[in-house]
From TrEMBL:
Pfam families with a match to the protein in the record: GerE, Response_reg
Protein name: Response regulator transcription factor
Species for this entry: Streptomyces vastus
Keywords for this protein: DNA-binding, Phosphoprotein, Transcription, Transcription regulation
Lineage: Bacteria, Bacillati, Actinomycetota, Actinomycetes, Kitasatosporales
Domain spans labelled HTH luxR-type: 154-219
Gene3D superfamilies: 3.40.50.2300
Modified residues (4-aspartylphosphate): D55
Matching SUPFAM superfamilies: CheY-like
Domain Response regulatory: 4-124
InterPro entries the record matches: CheY-like_superfamily (IPR011006), NreC/VraR/RcsB-like_REC (IPR058245), Sig_transdc_resp-reg_receiver (IPR001789), Tscrpt_reg_LuxR_C (IPR000792), WalR-like (IPR039420)
């Protein structure tokens, strides 16, 4: 199946470069481009994009607000694309808030081409990109500043999880794939998928990225925990 992608970035050369690179792939179709978040939302909805490649800092509307609007649309708007954020380490807070809003992944703008293509395909297939070099640092940095009240509220929710679900949640937060979790816990991939579905339902999470946030906020994974 062809993945419909929209590229949103205020730098013409960057936007055009990404578009040309992605268009060269047989399974990716660049269906639109936009120079700011406001137009990005409009183009994404009109083209019914599967994945939106979203810059963070842009004029008129930044990538954070655009992500919120795309993933929490007004009544009657059913389209919700996957959002892949483009970031640098000096804007961690922006990206963390986008993750909480439902963004499915993050990449540095200078990431290797293969990593970008893999991220788009993983996200389009319903997964989330939890690259240790980016996402864990973002989560850990903000969790250090979260209030005790918020962490206590998350811990109360942990009471609904079974010991095995808690194990799976911990491994998700450490960036493990379903296959890696299955191998570590000596269970089948189908069993891991079942646990994942239960975690998403019990914790009212959209995807793996939001599960990772919950794990840090509840304290079952702490900043600096080895992967």
């Amino acid at each position: 199946m062809t993945i419909r992608v929209v590229v949103v970035d205020d730098q013409d050369m960057v936007r055009s470069g990404f578009a040309a690179l992605l268009s060269a792939q047989s399974d990716i179709d660049v269906v639109g481009e936009a120079p700011n978040g406001r137009l990005g939302v409009e183009v994404s909805r009109s083209t019914r994009a599967d994945v939106v490649l979203m810059d963070v800092r842009m004029p008129e509307m930044d990538g954070l607000e655009a992500t919120r609007r795309l993933l929490d649309p007004p009544p009657g708007v059913l389209h919700r694309p996957k959002v892949l954020m483009l970031t640098t380490f000096d804007i961690d807070d922006y990206v963390h808030e986008a993750l909480r809003a439902g963004a499915s992944g993050f990449l540095l703008k200078d990431a290797p081409v293969a990593e970008l293509l893999r991220a788009i395909r993983v996200i389009a297939a319903g997964g989330a990109l939890l690259a240790p070099s980016v996402t864990r640092r973002l989560i850990e940095d903000v969790i250090r500043r979260r209030s005790t009240w918020e962490q206590d509220a998350r811990r109360l929710q942990l009471g609904s999880l079974t010991p095995r679900e808690t194990e799976v949640l911990t491994l998700v937060a450490q960036g493990r794939s379903n296959t890696e979790i299955a191998e570590q816990l000596f269970v089948s991939a189908h069993t891991v998928k079942t646990h994942m579905n239960r975690l998403l339902a019990k914790l009212d999470a959209r995807d793996r990225a939001q599960l990772a946030v919950f794990a840090y906020e509840s304290g079952i994974v702490t900043p600096g925990t080895p992967a």
